[in-house]
Amino acid sequence: MLMILSVYSLTKVEVMQNDSYNRSGFIAFLFSMVFSLTFFVYVTVFHKGIDLKEVPEAAAGADVTIATETAKKVDVSKNDTPWVESADMAAHGASIYANNCAVCHGPKGAGDGPAGTALNPPPRNLIEGKWKKGGDSEGLFVVLQKGIPGSSMASFAHLPVIDRWALVQYIHSITQNRVKDDPAKLEAFAKTAK
Ligand code: HEC
């Protein structure tokens, strides 16, 4: 339609020369206005939007959240021998771990947390368990108490004693290098540990 009109107008150039009113130009203008208006109404009112089929990425800390939720149900506040191995303590430790340690040591303890990648020395792979400070309950507790000087492993002495024992038990529950405790020696240490 537009093409025919423009071709027609070209052939009529001489006639049109005297005519200050450009008919085909006006029609083309009108057509484009109607088109853009229709298009605008279509896009804003009728079109449902484009579905890019995006799949939301699973939250990075999904495992950690689950661990926290299950572990929160465990009440260890009445445990007066928190250094003695128990499933409740390990479960409680999992939630403390998720909130304080996973960022460096990784959600499952493999030393692959997002904040640990650039550290030197790197965060310990707790599953592998190449311990520098003994790796028995006392050794792990002391690490949490004092940190490891010269590394990013800080002291966690601000956590309640029972939470630190829970962490020790959680580490023992996930590691492949479980160092045996001497129960009597451990109890003697635990009675004084702060
Ligand atoms: C800022 C990062 C960071 C955070 C957070 C962190 N650690 Fe560490 N951790 C390290 C690094 C780095 C090392 C290795 C230090 C070294 O090799 O000298 C380490 C080492 C350890 C070790 C090894 C001890 C040994 O005898 O070899 C244990 C156990 C440990 N961390 C437990 C924890 C626990 C439990 C938490 C949470 C309460 C925690 N860490 C939080 C960085 C971190």
**Shape annotation:** rod-shaped
How many helices in DSSP terms?
9
Class based on secondary structure composition and strand pairing: mainly alpha
- CA radius of gyration: 36 Å
In terms of DSSP E residues, the strand content is under 5%
Q: Helix coverage percent of residues?
A: 40-55%
N-to-C series of helices and strands: HHHHHHHHH
Mean pLDDT: 86
Q: Count the beta strands.
A: 0
- CATH-defined fold name of the largest domain: Cytochrome Bc1 Complex, Chain D, domain 2
CATH architect. name of the largest domain: Orthogonal Bundle
CATH superfamily of the largest domain: Cytochrome c-like domain
The N- and C-terminal alpha carbons lie at a distance of 90 Å
Low-confidence stretches: none
* Ligand names: heme C
What number of structural domains do the residues give?
Answer: 2
Main beta-sheet strand count, sense and barrel state: none
Give an overview of the whole structure.
- This protein is 53% helix and 0% strand.
- With 194 residues, the chain is mostly helical.
- Helix 5 (87-100) packs across helix 8.
- Bound molecules: heme C.
- Heme C (HEC) is lined by residues 97, 100-101, 103-105, 115-116, 119, 121-124, 126, 131-133, 135, 139-140, 143-144, 148, 151-153, 156, 167, 171.
- Heme C is lined by residues 97, 100-101, 103-105, 115-116, 119, 121-124, 126, 131-133, 135, 139-140, 143-144, 148, 151-153, 156, 167, 171.
